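Progress against Task 2.4 (sequence-to-structure conversion) is shown through the following example record, which the project officer requested during the mid-term review.
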Amino acid sequence: MAHIQYTDGLVREYVLFRGFSNTLKSFDAELKSDKDKSFRVDKIIDQLMQMIQTQDLQGLRDLWAHLNSHLFRNLEHSFTTAVVKLEQSILKLYLITAYMANKPDKVNEFFTKLAPELVSQSEWKEWFFFPFCKNPEEHSAFSVCFTRQWQDTLLVSLHNFLSTIYQCMPQPTLSKAEGESSLLRKLQEENSQLRAKLQSIQQQAATASSGSVHQSRLSSFSDQKYSLDGKTRYSTRTSGSVQSLNDIIPFDIPPPAHIVDDFYIIAQESNNIGNAAESQARGLKSLIKNISSGGSPVLGRKDNASERNKKRSGSVGSRSNWIHS
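Structure tokens generated for the chain above:
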């Protein structure tokens, strides 16, 4: 709880700035007699052990009452058993220390002052025999409290218990000033680092993009060639999507039934046109020949038809004469 000392300094500086001299004197006096020791657990443990070593029973009781009223009473009900257990162990450690210091008067004073309070507690029934026991370190009810392990365990448990309470207890707004200011400075430093990193990434991306555009322009210019007329330019670059001929999927187009040469078709058509021209020429020649000979093809067809009719009538008349004969 180092920030409590920083907060005390802020309060002292503010009171001095405002000119509250009497308040400043009272504040300094109360800081000197502060039982919480600015919520430093090691200082509180040292204060408890000093009172136990000097057999200051009243001071020990007052300090524990202060902790109980300011800290322990605000805890949940489930921690009541742990608080009572710690208090009883601290009082037992006081008795053990007084016996080891060969101060029986302090032991008798302890039971004289606290007997009305402890007589109703089952935990202390056997301990009322402690002042009359010749060798309490060998007694089964007291021997465990004389061991170094039990005493160290008690101090470590009390230290951890108080540390947990101080860390979880609600803090006033003023005491959070240092923590919030340090957190704000840390966030500002992280923000500055992230901004610098972002700017470097953007610069690298801009440099890379400009280099790629310049390279693409050079490659496209080198791929361009001129046609035969020297004016039209065309590109020799293949499409980037097609990487090889194996990637091209052929269309399913059936082949023609007969492979015909186009030049053969053109030649055949020209022969047909020539034959038709020759036949027309022959017909014109025969027509001119008939006209020059004085005959008509139409009249010639009529004469031939009359001769065939005469032959038919003669055959009929001879056939009728044969019938009459």
